[in-house]
Amino acid sequence: MASSSNSAVYPVYAAGMGAVPARPHPRVLSIAGSDPSGGAGIQADLKSIAAHGGYGMAAITALTAQNTLGVSAIHVPPVEFLRQQLDAISSDIEIDAVKIGMLGDAAVIDEVRSWLEEVRPAVVVLDPVMVATSGDRLLRETAETALRSLLPLADLVTPNLPELAMLLGEPEAPDWATALDQGKRLAAECGTTVLVKGGHLAGNDCPDALVNTSGLLRQDVIEVPGPRVDTRNSHGTGCSLSSALATVQARRGDWEVSLREVKPWLLQALAAADGLEVGKGSGPVHHFHHMEPALNPAGKSGDFAARLWAEAAPELDAIYGLAFIQGLQSGRLPEPQFNYYLAQDAIYLNGYSRVLARAGALAPTEEEQLFWAKSSQLCLEVESELHRNWLSTRSASTQTGPVTRSYVDHLLATSASGSYAVLLAAILPCYWLYAEVGQQLHAAYVDAGAPSEHPYAAWLTTYADEEFAAATRKAIDFTDAAAISASTQERGAMVEAFAQSCRYETAFFDAPRLFA
Length: 516
Known about the structure:
By secondary structure, the protein is an alpha/beta fold. 53% of the residues lie in helices and 10% in strands. It has a 9-stranded mixed beta sheet with strand order 3-2-1-4-5-6-7-8-9, with helices on both faces. A hairpin with a 2-residue loop joins strand 2 (55-67) and strand 3. Helix 11 (335-362) runs antiparallel to helix 12 (366-388) and helix 11 (335-362) packs parallel to helix 13 (402-415). The longest helix has 28 residues, at 335-362. The two termini are 16 Å apart.
């Protein structure tokens, strides 16, 4: 971003079905089977819902005898009892979202469909559980047709690749392009949004994509990249993802925003799974990894800042590899892309100033209150300067771009949480990563002899601003100090907020390539 409050964003392009009343603690019902080992099914759903601030409820469709090694038996209670569970809940409690998992047979599916048609919750996520991670079949073949008839009642369907193929009656997709094609056709057939998941593909990447051809998304396909986590402990991944999405969607009302909030959490849950040491086979993911201490509570000053800097390293590498940054450094960046970048920066700064003002209101000391208030004012001054100088003589869209909108939404949501420490962690990449990238760009410009014909020379010199460097150091110190006095849970939330904002930084620099 530009000058004293610049930043960037990870692609959270607005998508979804429109406004859903946001609730700080959504009431989420899981309709699924039970896993006595605790890694999947109802048990995983309730953990996932709680991890995202929801109030979890459960109606059990089937009892399984299973562990990390596989499923040895399945018992489906009388379908009449399932309906009694559903009616007991919905007659007393307003349900904000429903996640549907293992259904077992056609009779259970028909009963769930009948209940959905009567109650029709605002958010319905269907995870078409047909095959367990271990390879055990969890849905009778005779029930596949009934399951397909349930798909149109869901707002989001989240099959893995084997399940996606089974729903279409086709072989499993061998690559991402084929998977996306299958997702498009399933979305067209059932008239709802499909989440295509790349977890079963080979390679180091593990992308996901929201697919819809009915106009519910701003784009037919919205891909969310991600790395593959090297662990055998992935039991319950699909259950955990779908129930988390149902919970967050009840708060956010936007499927893409929800996915981009949930996916980093799930990646960390997989990364931390080995530490649980549960079972001899495919163990569960760590649903509450974010509640563990980010570092030793007795850590000294500077320790938490060092932890955050380690979190930022992958995004810095990604930023330096972007065509936008390379073109900006060389001077060969197409001017329309630079114009888009500055226009979005000006829009962003307007929203960011409100977030900084909120930090000032929450700050515990006068020094911090004055610092954030001054930073908020500088944001507005920089925005005016951008319009007055470069943008006033060039053509650039004044509409808020999807990346900009999503990043500002992320910060505003964090500011509404009431935690000063978490808010500072979300704010910090806007200072820290920008200052680091700016320093490198300016140094390269100077090393090249500071050529006057460089089209962005005047802009690059702003990176040498020592006042901004000093403000960045102070923002780091304030965040580090807040972490020392924060609770264990807050420190975990700080790391997540910081990492999310770092990803947003990368995307903001990449947005001109996509949208200019």
